[in-house]
Amino acid sequence: MGPAQRAAADLAAIREKKPLIHSITNLVVMNETANATLCIDALPIMSHAVEEVEEMVGIASALVLNIGTLTPAWIDAMELAGKRANELGIPVILDPVGAGATKLRTDSSKRLLENVKISIVRGNAGEVATLAGIAAEVRGVESIGAEAGTDEIAARFASTYGCTVAITGPVDIVSDCKQIARISNGDAMLAKVVGTGCMSNVIVASFASVDSDPFSAAVGALSTFGLAGEMAAKASGDKPGSFHVELYNALYAISPADVASGANIKMSDI
Amino acid sequence: MGPAQRAAADLAAIREKKPLIHSITNLVVMNETANATLCIDALPIMSHAVEEVEEMVGIASALVLNIGTLTPAWIDAMELAGKRANELGIPVILDPVGAGATKLRTDSSKRLLENVKISIVRGNAGEVATLAGIAAEVRGVESIGAEAGTDEIAARFASTYGCTVAITGPVDIVSDCKQIARISNGDAMLAKVVGTGCMSNVIVASFASVDSDPFSAAVGALSTFGLAGEMAAKASGDKPGSFHVELYNALYAISPADVASGANIKMSDI
Amino acid sequence: MGPAQRAAADLAAIREKKPLIHSITNLVVMNETANATLCIDALPIMSHAVEEVEEMVGIASALVLNIGTLTPAWIDAMELAGKRANELGIPVILDPVGAGATKLRTDSSKRLLENVKISIVRGNAGEVATLAGIAAEVRGVESIGAEAGTDEIAARFASTYGCTVAITGPVDIVSDCKQIARISNGDAMLAKVVGTGCMSNVIVASFASVDSDPFSAAVGALSTFGLAGEMAAKASGDKPGSFHVELYNALYAISPADVASGANIKMSDI
């Protein structure tokens, strides 16, 4: 089964099983990521109280940790939930939003990577480079540049932390220690709406909940999300407000057949 | 005056009086519930600091408590605001989001029900069943099933807590200890957008601010909200992003005459 | 260069320089203000942890403080960030949301005005009047809509605090101690969507990041934002959900030429 077929099969499984996705995420995108989750027929739950995160993750099929508006108390909750997810064998996705922009963000990302077994890290090139020890510039949550190519950043990160990494950008790169995928789906309008990266996290988590291979899950999720972006751009043109609306419509409408025929994935060994 | 006529009269009163609705609600739906409030010409205020909730509720016409992303500190603020609302005779609406999914949610809902006189509880079947002592499954914030029919759950809850209860679903059920209303307005798309239940809370609160009978207020609000959902579905088709936009348009456009002619309410005594 | 030409030049500078705008704002409008920021090609960052706000503001070009869902801990973070912005010479915009409604809001606004050098305060007439010490009379004046009242409020505020003040309403008033501008752009639909005032704050901040004169920055920003509101109203009609979507489209599409020809600004000396 090629990667596009596997992505299609994963999407069909999500739409059938309706996995519960527990997100501990930032205050800016909570509604948007919950709606993205619901659009692909997964069920969103947001919960960040240390008093309940372990119990909540116990009924979930995947956990998303996103540090976009972090405080130390929220990182405590993320670590608790992550450790419990590890005990239960539930995949954990980390988005190190703004790692490299402030010491708190870099340190908190490292703390989570050290204390929780992360299945997939999804971030931009600057964030991932910073955590891999490669000099990079991160302005707020925007990647400005790094002293290495995206392939090298991904490979270095994957070998340092022993997990799958997905770097999103004009071309998305997914790597574990053995292979690299280049995903050429997507549209420039995805960068004109706040939180599309955060939305992609819950799609990645949904795929990881039905596909035991994190690499395949990340590849399938990002090609599916990118395709939805292409569909939304066709429906809305150069208008970010309309594109945002159409992105939900596309995530809801996109079918396994769309993914099987439209996924643009190139695989290579490292 | 029949229930549809009373709903229409209540909506007219809201549009004229523009009541201030104070919400202490979850982080996922704050913007959406504030916009829903504004669309029916009520005025939204969000405030959760223990230092000010009592003063803020003093200028409000109704209070909404929603535990969707609860922490113990937020429950403290809800209890303070609720007690002050009780002193002032302002109706309090409680949405026990996720009661049954975690101990914290079940316990916090019970704590609020014990310490604050709630006018109307609005939730799904699983949440309400859990609080009424009927076994039920709640997955995150989704009701999966309960060991009793919705009518029985509603009747048991109303008699246990002595307040009006509204269980929303394909058919909405409202009950106090004396009568039951079945509201058949609404559209399946309401389940495809995050926070429509939370939006319905502020509509219920707005109706309760102009109608001294909690049962009539809940019935009127849910038929009005359901009708707006029908109007939105007609305008948007099977597209959740577009439906979300059209739902605000419909809440803004819906008139007392629309409600008088379109409300689909069946009443019966218990 | 007249005020419309200056507004156009400022907008062109924002679209070219992509300034980073750090907001510590309320939970209701975070996504909306971030998207408004991005639509005019500035970059949004939200960060409120006391552990990082000083470092984050160090890479920003302007800082927005908005007390809409304040707690004392958030005000601490705002004060820290504001003081650091002052050291670095970065403009600080304050929105005293709800000043006058509760003691906490009035006191917190005054605390920020006393401890941080604010470049521009943006609020409604009642909030600004309260802080200028003329609350009761002003509420009465506001209810009968006297324009002379608003001028006096603005002048009193500007002379009390020595900063630029922008009072938004049907006609926006901007004043420092020397001059007053009346901006007649905008549309009544801006009052039918939650958070448009908050969105205008980040537009003001973006202008202040490229224009060293706070008065000119506020005038340019509010005429640009008002014009975008006019464009959105034309595209959407009397529908708040659609207007909200079109407002982002308009903020993204609006050009320096649109501003140069459409800005409706009247200037006068005090």
Give short descriptive properties of this protein.
homotrimer, 270 residues, alpha/beta, UDP-N-acetylmuramoyl-L-alanine:D-glutamate ligase, two-stranded antiparallel sheet, 11 helices, globular
Radius of gyration of chain A: 17 Å
Q: Mind summarizing the main beta sheet of chain A? A: 9 strands, mixed
Chains forming the largest contact: A-B, 30 and 32 residues
CATH third-level topology of chain A: UDP-N-acetylmuramoyl-L-alanine:D-glutamate ligase
Give, in order, the helices and strands of chain A: HEHEHEHEHEHEEHEEEHHHHE
Beta content of chain A comes to 15-25%
How much helix is in the residues of chain A? Answer: 40-55%
Across the major sheet of chain A, the strand order is 2-1-3-4-5-8-9-10-11
